[in-house]
Amino acid sequence: MKHEDLEDKLKTAKVDLQRRLSAIDADLGTALDPDSEDRVTQLENDQVLSEMRREAGAQIRLIDAALERLKHGMFGRCVTCLAPIETARLDAIPYTPYCATCARLADERRSS
Ligand SMILES: [Zn+2]
Q: 3-28 and 39-71 are packed helices; what angle lies between their axes, rounded to 10 degrees?
């Protein structure tokens, strides 16, 4: 993929995420009605929204870091071992900072 295409792709993904974040914030901002029977549902719903919000925020930070690497000519290299990241992996998750091996190791660390 060309440099400019990648940058476009990352920026588009970021705009999408930011739009999602504002939508989530708008939803979370709606006041709870203490007398409403839907209150429990709404609380559960808010928990889901908070989780989505956290994930979108984390993705935006990953995209920013990827754009930064693109600027410095380090894009497509694993930030941990500096090996080139697999093309298929970059196609699927263009903002990933890790190669498949390091991503798996990071996952294992997180889950253990
Ligand atoms: Zn690696």
A: 160
